[in-house]
Amino acid sequence: MDFEEYVAVRRPALVRSAVLLGCTSDDAEDLVQVTLTKCFQHWRKVSRADRPDAYVYRILVNALRDQRSRFWHGETPTEQLPETALEVDPTSGLAVRAALALLTKEHREVLVLRFYADLSERDTARVLGVAAGTVKSRTARALAALSLDQNIARSH
Hints:
About 70% of the residues lie in helices and about 0% in strands. It is mainly α. The radius of gyration is 17 Å and the shape is globular.
């Protein structure tokens, strides 16, 4: 597959993955642009990789980490706090984003790569630079945290 073809097929999933990893829509577009620019510069190497998607997701995750280490994304002060929490329709994509936002960065990364990007445990481990066992344990803990959050939400 050539670069243009790869971008046409995979770009939407890359943008969605960036959003699920915690980027705004605009920041996700920027992140994917940076990722694809790096891929284009080394396309021969990327396209020859055993798993090009895993290679590209590694670039994406590393670019996101670099971006976050340069910018402060702290809280924005407000004069008044909202009275109630925002209600989110569980059938919308916003519910997924809201649930993922409650997780740690490590848990969010592993769930997005495993279940949205559909990478294997081994490929996810390569992307994140951790052992496959770490991917298994993070996945289990992340799913448990999501289940706990859902059970708490149901009880209210």
